[in-house]
Design goal:
By secondary structure, this protein is of the alpha+beta class. It has ten helices and 29 strands. It has helices at 9-20, 36-41, 43-47, 86-98, 138-146, 265-268, 280-290, 346-357, 372-390, 434-442, and strands at 26-33, 55-56, 59-63, 77-81, 100-101, 104-106, 109-111, 117-118, 120-123, 127-129, 149-150, 157-170, 174-179, 188-195, 200-202, 205-209, 212-216, 229-236, 240-262, 273-274, 299-304, 307-308, 313-314, 320-325, 330-332, 361-366, 412-413, 421-423, 425-431. The strands form six sheets. Strands 1, 2, 5, 8, 9, 12, 13, 14, 15, 16, 17, 18 and 19 form a 13-stranded mixed β-sheet that branches. Strands 21, 22, 23, 24, 26 and 29 form a six-stranded mixed β-sheet that branches. Strand 21 (299-304) and strand 22 form a beta hairpin. One of its GO terms (molecular function) is oxidoreductase activity.
Length: 443
């Protein structure tokens, strides 16, 4: 067996640079509500400052019943948040009464189990709202943070936020245990949750990825002098998240599915172009290439999540390939769509663009995951195969059973869907050997 080579200093630097980027999975913010007092008393003060704060008007929700009682005409109802009048308080109770129990997806089916999820829902065909995440700059922020576009027109991307559900988690005991969102299509890369200004306590949203956790606490502050706010959080769809128990009040949220689509200007009229040469990973990758870490020996280094494994393997190919196991899972639906690299997320997108900016050929490949005993059998077969080739014996093909290909590894999600599922992939960068680079320089 070949000895395991040690990582070179530049590979160690690259490994550390990857580890520093592991927090790229969620973002959030808050938007204050423009009430009559803030409009009269604070607008003038804000106008004199260089930093203007985005404000939203009070949010109105209108809805009707799909099946009105006694076959009559559907009654249109409305509630305005934050609540300032008794009629809106009554309307919020009416909205809660008109919602239905929320289900969740389990193995492609909708399941109602209030020990796992206790919440109410209303589908988009039954309500409309004055809230607009585009005009308030939320979608632009999500685009910059979670789906940045680059100068290459092939990966110039935009976010299409589509309203999916209205949910109410009421106290006591409203909650949703840890789950991963069910992808609605291969183009979906994330979710946006907007918490409207309805008084409640508890119900924190916890988002987790690769051992990291971010908590969004949208409870109503005890200091009544604080202005009401709209809170929001966006995160990648393969991130596990959980709604903690609501102790009192009503946690009212709007959920948007986030899709990657071509071109930023098509949606918002603004261009959010990032220069990949200014990404933190770019300089680390540039040093990696200039130092020729493969030393012309054709080494293949495995990058596990956002790390480079110390267990490097030797191959006989000319040149070398650096393999980066993507940090995120991606939705796919067989061969109907090819969303990658357009839907690459966070650090995965940074790695892809940094290599491309340096002229390195990159491609995406699926990952096959095997049990240890199968992996050992394949490794033994590989050594045995090489021995047979040396004796010039005829080769026998080895077929891997399809059950070892990664499929939908997530059990629980929002409402079930058979349209797409999650899988894993790797980014492969073809690094030239020092010999080929030297010959290209002298040519």
């Amino acid at each position: 067996m070949s000895s395991r080579p040690a990582l070179t200093p530049v590979l160690v630097d690259f490994k550390n640079a990857l580890a520093e980027q592991k927090h790229f999975y969620a973002c959030g913010g808050r938007i204050s509500i423009a009430t009559p007092t803030t409009v009269d008393g604070e607008a003038e003060a804000r106008s004199s400052t260089s930093l203007r704060t985005t404000q939203s008007k009070p949010v109105t929700i209108r809805w009707d019943l799909s099946n009105p009682p006694h076959g009559g005409l559907a009654e249109c109802k409305r509630v305005t948040l934050p609540i300032t009048q008794q009629r809106d308080r009554d309307a919020l109770d009416s909205l809660r009464d008109d919602c239905k129990p929320a289900t969740f997806g389990l193995n492609g089916k909708d399941v109602l189990d209030e020990t796992y999820r206790k919440a109410l829902k209303m589908d988009t065909e039954l309500f409309c709202t004055t809230f607009d995440p585009y005009s308030l700059g939320i979608v632009d922020t999500v685009t910059q943070m979670l789906l940045p576009s680059f100068e290459d027109p092939q990966t110039h991307r935009a976010v299409d936020a589509r309203l999916y559900k209205l949910n109410i988690y009421s106290g006591p005991s409203g909650m949703f245990k840890a789950h991963v969102d069910t992808p609605r299509s291969a183009a979906q890369f994330g979710s946006l949750v907007v918490c409207l200004p309805a008084e409640h306590h508890g119900g924190q949203l916890k988002v987790r990825h690769k051992g990291e956790e971010t908590t969004f606490d949208w409870s109503t502050p005890s200091d009544e002098s604080k202005l009401p706010h709209i809170e929001w959080a966006a995160f990648y769809s393969d991130c596990e998240h959980e709604v903690m128990e609501v102790s009192s009040g009503h946690r009212l949220t709007l959920t948007y599915n986030l899709y990657a689509v071509p071109g930023t200007r098509h949606l918002t009229g603004r261009s959010s172009v990032l220069d990949p040469t200014r990404l933190p990973l770019h300089s680390a990758i540039e040093r990696l290439i200039s130092d020729d870490p493969l030393c012309g020996k054709g080494l293949v280094f495995e990058a596990l999540s956002y790390q480079i494994s110390d267990q490097s393997t030797l191959t006989l190919n000319a040149g070398g390939t650096l393999g980066f196991w993507c940090s995120h899972a991606y939705a796919y639906n067989d061969t109907r769509e090819a969303p990658l690299p357009e839907t690459l997320k966070g650090i995965d997108a940074s790695v892809w663009e940094s290599f491309r900016a340096l002229g390195i050929e990159v491609k995406i490949a699926p990952i096959i995951r095997m049990e240890d005993d199968v992996r050992n059998s394949i490794a033994y077969f590989h050594e045995w195969e090489k021995a047979r080739e040396r004796k010039r014996e005829p080769r026998k093909r080895c077929r891997l059973p399809s059950k070892f290909i990664v499929g939908n590894k997530f059990g629980y999600g929002n409402e079930g869907s058979a349209g797409a599922m999650y899988s894993h992939c790797a980014i492969l960068a073809s690094l030239p050997s020092k010999t080929s680079k030297d010959s290209a320089t002298t040519a």
